[in-house]
Amino acid sequence: MLRTIVLGSCVMVQGQFVRDLPDGRIVVRVDDRLFAGRPVDNCKAA
After folding, report:
1. Which residues, other chains included, contact 27 with Cβ-Cβ below 8 Å and sequence gap of 6+?
2. Are 5 and 37 in contact (CB under 8 A)?
3. Which helix H or strand E contains 39, and what residues bound it?
4. What are the two backbone dihedrals, phi and then psi, of residue 43, each rounded to the nearest 5 degrees?
5. 6 within 8 A of 14, measured Cβ to Cβ
6. Handedness of CA 13, 2, 5, 40 (dihedral sign)
7. By C-alpha distance, which of 28, 7, 31, 25 is closest to 17?
């Protein structure tokens, strides 16, 4: 499933969902790289 995360104030990354982290962030995979950030609400991602 594709998920969008926020890395900074205006940097977003969209990739394949990998896992949830205990602090509320999620990890997504883009090619061979992993990124962790806050998930974007469904209404903001659309």
Report:
1. 17, 18, 19, 20, 21, 34, 35, 36
2. yes
3. strand 33-39
4. -70, -30
5. no
6. positive
7. 28
Residue 13 token pair: 């990354």
Which amino acid is present at 25? R
d(CA 8, CA 6): 6
- For residue 46, the model assigns a pLDDT of 55
What is the tens place of the pLDDT at every residue in 1-46? Answer: 899 999 988 899 999 999 999 999 999 999 999 999 999 977 655 5
**Which residue in the block uniquely carries the two structure tokens 């990890």?**
27
Domain range list for the chain: 2-45
